[in-house]
Write a structure and sequence with these properties.
2 domains, T4/T6SS_DotU, OmpA-like_sf, Serine Threonine Protein Phosphatase 5, Tetratricopeptide repeat, 7% strand, T4/T6SS_DotU_sf, alpha+beta, 451 residues, 60s Ribosomal Protein L30, Chain: A, DotU family type VI secretion system protein
């Protein structure tokens, strides 16, 4: 069976959409000195080096050089002034890649599969940034534009497994997927327990497979490098001032990111310690027996009975408050603070239930104890705050009264189950909506009309 006989190969290497953009001029292309240094490092650790751009070693990698260079640059860009322009530019680069691959006589099936994997890797890099993770990029991603799919993190590895069964026939495509992994693509392994270690093992296995077919690479990247160096010795040590300034800025940014992540890690621990503090008990004198308080009628559970039966929400009606629990795994994508569109009707029903009962509403976000460290969410607390604010803003808009709703982040504190299994961690990833309602008035002896 041809490993390309899947939905990816059904799309031929033809132009899609109507995006236009100019070529990007930043980033070294494979073959430049920066890429060669990375290649030497990879070879020292048993990884294959990149195919040369113009020697016909791998036409797919040579055609995709510009897109491969953009993956790490996009992923570590904290701010971008115009994400929409960047998406159009990438779409134009993908169409140019298709044309270059056709000129190099790559097959339509290989071009379609390569385009699918490049779109998936570029979309993931953008989604992990503060400016691309808000949900707008995923709704208008490259994969949606070219393949009408929203997420390729699973199919990427399904395709890889099929290609590895025919390494000699699919060597060019295997090398392209290998470079996507080396440049940081994780796909489904980003949300799996111990996913980073599993992905490292897969990448090493893929490297050995490629080397078994391609053979060892020549340790020398150029056979005439000594003559070139001798002629350029006078210019080699003349470092431009702009390069020194750029290096200083880069080092400063690296120090800032490192300190920010270190502070986020410590803040998570401090927040957890605060949550474990026990308030000393106060001994109170027992009061005189009062009349028995009747069990309050269901405040929200009756209205939300259909959602409770479907397992969408949990409701606890107590004497002074009602608590609605929303499971975070169904409410948000992994690592995101944007509410999934299919959950909007459920939140509309919750808002309708809250509108029938007066009282303040507190929306609290919770996470599991797995640390979150990214540019957008430096800590678990930051993620829990943004998730709570996302739900609170929807409820406030539905209620028409923003003063009733308040959002709070609780991070990994107050778990409902031990964080020792994946199922328990999923239970701890939640949003709780608490309605603080006035308790029912009690009838006291002598009150009311005499019989």
């Amino acid at each position: 069976m041809n490993p390309l006989n899947d939905p990816v190969s059904a799309e031929r290497a033809s132009g899609h959409g109507a995006f236009t953009a100019s070529r990007s001029g930043f980033g070294p292309a494979p073959g430049d000195e920066a890429w060669q240094a990375d290649a030497l490092h990879e070879q020292a650790h048993g990884f294959p080096g990149p195919a040369a751009s113009g020697d016909g070693g791998n036409p797919l990698v040579a055609a995709a050089n510009a897109l491969l260079n953009l993956i790490p640059q996009i992923r570590y860009t904290v701010h971008h002034p115009n994400p929409a322009w960047l998406r159009e530019h990438l779409a134009n680069e993908i169409r140019q890649f298709e044309q270059r691959a056709r000129d190099a006589l790559a097959s339509p099936e290989q071009i379609g599969a390569a385009r699918y994997c490049l779109c998936t890797a570029l979309d993931e890099a953008a989604a992990l940034t503060p400016w691309g993770g808000s949900g707008d990029w995923s709704a208008n991603s490259l994969l949606v534009a070219f393949h009408n799919e929203t997420w390729g993190g699973e199919k990427f590895f399904e395709l890889l497994n099929r290609l590895m069964q025919q390494p000699r026939e699919q060597l060019n495509l295997l090398e392209l997927l290998y470079y996507c992994l080396v440049l940081g693509f994780e796909g489904r392994y980003r949300v799996l327990d111990n996913g980073r270690a599993q992905l490292d093992d897969l990448r090493h296995t893929l490297a050995r497979t490629i080397r078994s077919v391609r053979g060892d690479y020549d340790a020398a990247l150029s056979t005439h490098w000594r003559d070139e160096i001798a002629r350029e010795d006078s210019q080699r040590f003349a470092v431009p001032l702009w390069a020194c300034a750029a290096l200083t800025v880069l080092l400063g940014f690296g120090v800032y990111v490192g300190l920010d992540l270190a502070l986020a890690g410590r803040s998570d621990k401090a927040f957890a310690m605060i949550g474990r503090l026990q308030v000393p008990g106060v001994r109170l004198q027992a009061a005189e027996p009062q009349s028995v308080r009747p069990v309050p009628p269901p405040r929200l559970a009756g209205f939300l009975a259909p959602e409770i039966a479907e397992g969408l929400v949990e409701v606890r009606d107590l004497a002074d408050r009602s608590v609605i629990v929303l499971r975070g795994d169904g409410l948000f994508e992994s690592g995101s603070a944007s509410v999934i569109d299919r959950y909007q009707p459920t939140l509309a029903r919750v808002a309708a239930a809250l509108a029938q009962v007066p009282g303040a509403v507190v929306v609290a976000g919770y996470t599991d104890n797995v640390p979150v460290h990214s540019a957008r969410f430096p800590s678990n607390w930051d993620l829990s705050v943004e998730r709570a604010q996302a739900v609170a803003s929807i409820l406030a808009a539905r209620l028409g009264d923003s003063t009733r709703v308040r959002a709070e982040g609780r991070g990994a504190t107050d778990p409902v189950a031990p964080n020792d299994t994946a199922a328990n961690r999923a239970r701890n990833r939640r949003v709780e909506i608490t309605l603080r309602a006035a308790p029912p008035k009690l009838a006291t002896p002598g009150s009311g009309d005499a019989p």
